[in-house]
Design a protein that fits this description.
The complex is a heterodimer. By secondary structure, chain A is mainly α. Chain A contains eight helices and no strands. In chain A, helix 4 runs antiparallel to helix 6. The radius of gyration of chain A is 40 Å and the shape is extended. The N and C termini of chain A lie far apart (86 Å). Chain B is mainly alpha-helical. Chain B contains seven helices and three strands; from the N terminus they run αααβαβαβαα. A three-stranded parallel beta sheet of chain B has the order 1-2-3. Classes of the chains: A mainly alpha, B mainly alpha. At the A-B interface, loops of A face helix 4 and helix 7 of B. Chain B: It is a peripheral membrane protein. Chain B: InterPro entries: NADH_UbQ_OxRdtase-like_20kDa (IPR006137), NADH_UQ_OxRdtase_20Kd_su (IPR006138). Chain B: Its EC number is 7.1.1.-.
Chain lengths: 202, 168
């Protein structure tokens, strides 16, 4: 009876966190076992050519931290936009263009057509914007510096740019205040009277 | 090896030596480097495409030598290319195999005498396991080469050789 009571009230089941913990442990264990097995089974014969970077059979040169022209990202972003657009257009053409659906309600065809026109229109506005900005033009023969109309006169910048700074010797500035502080601190230690420590019964 | 496949067919429980099991796994998934040099590569592509379907014996081209087991030298090996082939071969992990496909890579082929730029056989640069004759060989011949390679892998004892060096 006692045993039954314990079994009912204190079930040894895992909580959800326990399950996650077990899952994590099993994952770590599996990876470790796999790597250990690979260490046992696989032949290990390193040489300089094998350890070098794979570059399609070419000799690797330079660092892998190569700087890309940021214009690639702009083009890639625009491409992605219109790539996703196509993904939406294909199911639209096949699903919403079904003859049965259009026969059921004649407004259906017009509705879906206008919907898609709005969707494409927004994206085409984006394309026009990018085109107008000149981001699609890859070769840019003359460099154009963007000018902004602001009321700050050029003399303000000139004052900043032509300002000369005096560089002081850093050792002199650090040592002086330390000495001064010590001198100032000494007089404060005098109390103005001599303390006497006489025992009252002497 | 036939033993393992018979066991698989009977009840699905396999009792085998680790070496046999490893060999069975390796010969069932021979991954070549995706790599073709000349016209033989067209036949190689044909062998891998739907008509001949090399994938059914586990041959599946990989884009990196790090993941590859087999290198198919499909075409004319020029001296300029030999340098790259050597490096790619070195970058493959052991155990690695080479199939020399076609006359050019076997012995220089039509360039054997006057081809100033052609290596007279890729085996002068890297060790070759299987030679396929033909100019170019048909896809069936390449499939035959893979079957021959399977027979070769079947007899290997990688773990035995690794842990019992004195008996080698």
């Amino acid at each position: 009876m006692l045993i039954l009571y314990y079994m009912d009230d204190y079930p040894t089941q895992l909580s959800s966190y326990g399950t996650i913990l077990l899952l994590g442990l099993a994952g770590i264990l599996l990876v470790c076992v796999t790597m250990f097995l690979a260490k046992i089974l696989s032949p290990n014969k390193p040489n300089p050519i094998k350890l070098s970077t794979y570059e399609c059979g070419e000799e690797p040169t330079g660092t892998s931290w190569v700087q890309f022209n940021p214009r690639f990202y702009v083009i890639a972003l625009i491409f992605l936009l219109f790539d996703v657009e196509l993904i939406f257009v294909f199911p639209w053409a096949t699903v919403y263009g079904q003859a049965e659906l259009i026969q059921m309600d004649s407004r259906w065809g017009w509705f879906t057509l206008i919907e898609m026109a709005i969707f494409l229109g927004i994206l085409i506005l984006g394309l026009i914007y990018v085109w107008k900005r000149g981001d699609l033009r890859w070769v840019k023969p003359q460099h154009v510096t963007p000018t902004v109309d602001v009321a700050i006169p050029k003399s303000a910048y000139n004052a900043l740019n032509n300002k000369s700074y005096e560089v002081r010797d850093y050792r002199a500035t650090v040592q002086e205040p330390v000495e001064e502080k010590q001198e100032e601190a000494k007089p404060q230690t005098s109390l103005g009277f001599k303390p006497r420590f006489k025992k009252p019964n002497a | 090896m036939t033993n393992i496949e018979q066991q698989l067919r009977s009840d699905g429980v396999i009792v085998a030596k680790i070496d046999d099991l490893l060999n069975w796994a390796r010969l069932s998934s021979m991954w070549p480097v995706s790599f073709g040099i000349a016209c033989c590569a067209i036949e190689m592509m044909g062998a891998m495409a739907s008509t001949y379907d090399l994938d059914r014996i586990g041959v599946f081209p990989r884009p990196s030598p790090r993941q590859a087991d087999v290198m198919i030298i499909a075409g004319t090996v020029t001296f300029k290319m030999a340098d790259r082939i050597k490096r790619l071969y070195e970058q493959m992990p052991e155990p690695r195999y080479v199939i020399s496909m076609g006359s050019c890579s076997n012995c220089g082929g039509p360039y054997w005498q006057h081809g100033y730029h052609v290596v007279k056989g890729v085996d002068k640069v890297i060790p070759v396991d299987v030679y396929v004759q033909g100019c170019p060989p048909r896809p069936e011949a390449l499939i035959g080469a893979f079957l021959e390679l399977q027979k070769k892998i079947e007899k290997e004892q990688i773990l035995h050789d690794k842990y019992f060096e004195e008996s080698v």
